[in-house]
Amino acid sequence: MEEKLTLFKNRKRFGIEKNIDIIFKNTALVLSSFVAIILLGIILVVFFQSFESFSRYGLKFLVTSEWNPVKDEYGAFTAIYGTLVTSFLSLLITIPLGVGTAIFITEDFVPKVFREIIGSFVELLAAIPSVVLGLWAIFVMEPFFRAFFVFLHNFFGWIPLFSTEPSGRNSLLAILILVVMLLPIVTSIARDSLNQVPKKLRNAAYGIGASRWKTIFSVILPAALSGIMAGVLLALGRAMGETMAVTMIIGNSNAFSWSLLSPGYTISSMLANQFGEADGSQVSSLFYAAFVLMILSLLVNIFAQWLVKKFSLKY
Amino acid sequence: MIKTNKKIAKNIILSLENVSISYGTFEAVRNVFCNFKKGDITSLIGPSGCGKSTVLRSLNRMNDLIPNCSLKGTVLFDGTNIYDKRVDPVEVRRRIGMVFQQPNPFPKSIYENIAFGARINGFTGDMDELVESSLRKAALWDECKDKLNDSGYSLSGGQQQRLCIARTIAIEPEIILMDEPCSALDPISTLKIEETMHDLKKNYTIIIVTHNMQQALRVSDMTAFFNAIEYEDGDGGKVGYLAEFNSTKKIFNSPKEKITQEYISGKFG
Amino acid sequence: MNSLYYQKRLSRNIGDKFFTSLSVICALIAILPLIFLVTYILYKGGSQITPELFTLEPNPPGDDLDAGGINPALVGTLIITTIASIIAIPVGVGGGIYLAEYSRGGAFSRFIKFGVNVLAGVPSIIAGVFIYALIVSTKILFGSMYSGLAGGMALSILMLPSVIKTTDEGLKLVPNELRYASLGVGASMYTTILKVTLPSAFRSIATGVVLGIARAAGETAPLIFTALFSYYYITGFGDLFYEMGSLAVLIYNFALEPYDAQNKLAWAASFILVLSILSVNIFSRILAAFTEKTKRV
């Protein structure tokens, strides 16, 4: 604008505008590096806070299950086992359900309108806060499954996973509520990956007389596999870090048991439950547990990203 | 009368009787009658939007994949209306194979690309031999015999298309449908595919859609010219119909219809 | 010659039928509980809604007759999410601008993008733990420990990756021609971004950001030991430095109470939370569909 007043005598930009440009760029640069600073900050803070506990218990912390603030003895095995077992088992249930649902809404079994309604409904459910799911789990899911758990114990009690009398809140309920949380994630990512498989591959298979499911299993699923895998890993990360719904339904007990029908613990539910009122070396041990959780979810996440990068753009 | 019909019927492998195809409420092709002779190469030509590809895809029920696509009339193959409710479209596609406009090999090795179709069709013989003979028939063997385990995508576009032809041959269909197989290819690859088609003629019936009239003239025995006219009710939409069907020689040298004459002389399209 | 007719007994047809039914069953198992969940929350929570709910303080558990209202939690959620937005939106939009407009895919921007994805995957409770260590236990905010401000900071960590991502993706959708047009008449980079690119990506960025805020409003884990909880009305600016209630933490605390009156309050709070989150989501979906339609015409 000012340039016009000078009648183009000086086409060079005024110094002040040049400076604004540079300041603007550098502000954006600094703001973008905040992400890295926060991430690094989280890792360092959690690591240093857990240092006391780490130097006292070392790696023994990971394999002992004593958690006794009175005696000042800490080991997180129960919580680590709980974290792994709830997240993996819930994923094991979710994968077939989610992928099956994704296939249902990408094939033409029902008219497109219905499929789109189902698809967006599933996505909407991902938006429901986990604390609300926890509330629902306590008052609706637990009574609903009570009889089934008794049945499980009576008939499959010889399997260690069902070897105890079912308690009101237990790991199996946590697994089931995790399934409800993970289903939308797995379903929508699987659907997107299936939709991205080029149509010409389906044509190719149909054109040489492959049946629908032969086509799905031998051509479409393999082509969508990396995307589905990445979605599954993201869901795994979410399951390991999920706090509220699990804390509300898992029973929060540090007594170790193989059985899913007895109360359990996960790292995040332990943090939610104890952090507020902990002091002394208990705090450091909780930070140690948080550090373990963070490393687990970092590994899963990085692996997922690597997978996406490695296998995307193949076709 | 009946006798002659039977005599013709003996050589007819596929016949369309009063076929109309619609996408939803939009009618794409109307009232097509057409007989395809065994062992012939038949070209379907015509301006874009005349429904020639739609007709081709209806011949092995690939149109089933398009939502809302419906067909009226009968398509007789081997004495059966393939649109009969009792017919299994998978079975139809096993006997009427298809090569598509874009080369579409599977993301598998060259060998697997051919073996896959044969296996799902229940092939129990020597797979290596089948792969070799199919690749030979598609004139691709010499170029890829040393890299059968490479991905199908490592081949050039023309080679990929010939791989797709080999894949179709491997399931031993009676008819091969080709939907503008050379439109994505360079002239040299096109020539090679045309040579391949000549060789295949001995054993297969081929029906090909092409927008290239020279190609139709070079490869085919019979030519069907499709055209599109505006609806009578005149809302601007067009519907395709079969304008003329005759031997390629006659179509290009002495067409009966004026519109055919205009099209082949390049006045429109 | 084998017949063209469909044969039921064929193993391939049996297999196809079997797997088709299996996928239908999967879809049913997946969808039915979800439908039940939503209707139950809306029904059970909706039946607890009264006008007093919005104006009263909750009564401390123990009095089973009257639980009071959720006013402090409602206001607290609004305040905490506002604080989180005030922090996360400028930082996130700025970072997104850098990634989309300035970076040329070098090592730094790839590292930042990687960081964004990793941060998005950090469990939400870890954000709470981090702010606890950094702000709460050090009493760095004028000597206050648990506070609404700390809660807002913890939430902002969770919002940040999604804001950066939506900004980055929104800006990348702006056609380069538009940038060239502006730069081509001699506009400087910042004018181009502020006057041309950002405005044309505004709607998609705003949608993404609003969805991020909606999600943050339901987050509980980062708040339970940063903002903690409070039963009392929020009356002034100074209350930012004290414990602050929120709908999410109220649901958590009152769900675990043995008293029916408190449980009902938790359902009522769930109703409000779910209804507002779902309506934001549905509204943005409709908006997006509408935008797409008008663009195509």
From TrEMBL, chain B:
GO terms for biological process: phosphate ion transmembrane transport. The keyword Transport applies. It comes from the Bacteria. Keywords: ATP-binding, Nucleotide-binding, Transport. GO terms for molecular function: ATP binding; ATP hydrolysis activity; phosphate transmembrane transporter activity. Signal peptide: none annotated. InterPro entries: AAA+_ATPase, ABC_transporter-like_ATP-bd, ABC_transporter-like_CS, P-loop_NTPase, PstB-like. Residues 14-253 form the ABC transporter domain. GO terms for cellular component: membrane. This is Phosphate transport ATP-binding protein PstB.
UniProtKB/TrEMBL annotation, chain C:
SUPFAM superfamilies: MetI-like. Coiled coil: none annotated. It comes from the Bacteria. One of its GO terms (biological process) is phosphate ion transmembrane transport. GO terms for molecular function: phosphate transmembrane transporter activity. It is found in: Cell membrane. CDD domains: TM_PBP2 (cd06261). Keywords: Cell membrane, Membrane, Phosphate transport, Transmembrane, Transmembrane helix, Transport. Residues 74-284 form the ABC transmembrane type-1 domain. It is a multi-pass membrane protein. The keyword Cell membrane applies. InterPro entries: MetI-like, MetI-like_sf, Phosphate_PstA, Phosphate_transprt_permease. The chain crosses the membrane at residues 21-43, 73-99, 111-134, 140-160, 240-259, 265-288. One of its GO terms (cellular component) is plasma membrane. The keyword Glycosyltransferase does not apply. Belongs to the binding-protein-dependent transport system permease family. CysTW subfamily. This is Phosphate transport system permease protein PstA. It comes from Prochlorococcus marinus str. MIT 9302. The lineage of its organism: Bacteria, Bacillati, Cyanobacteriota, Cyanophyceae, Synechococcales.
